[in-house]
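Now for a typical sample entry:
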Amino acid sequence: MSAIQTDLLFVYGTLRRGSAHDNAARLARESSWLGTGTLAGTLYRVSWHPALVLDGEDTVTGDLLRLTDPAASLPWLDAFESCGPDDPPPHDYRREIATVLTAGGAVKAMVYVWNLPTGGLERIASGDWLEAHA
């Protein structure tokens, strides 16, 4: 994955506050929650997790976090998102920098973007994984 460019991370699925996934609790311990935010994109249901495509079709809701130690957290996050150095290509996701809209304005944050075709995947029209997964 690319070098660390920011300590901000936008999460939109199983890593969000309110998710029951074990890695959501780990991420909460390794970051500060800055609030909710949105970005332009489309959310799809893969199976037990969502996929984000940055195409501007919908508004995707998620949480903006500040990683306490990005160099420590990003390796396990990349592995969780199947885009670490030990994951064979093609990777499921790629880590990118995207513009996230918050109550305080627009910020640049890292986000994991779906890296595979979306054909056959269900679009989540609300753009909110927690709402759609409830």
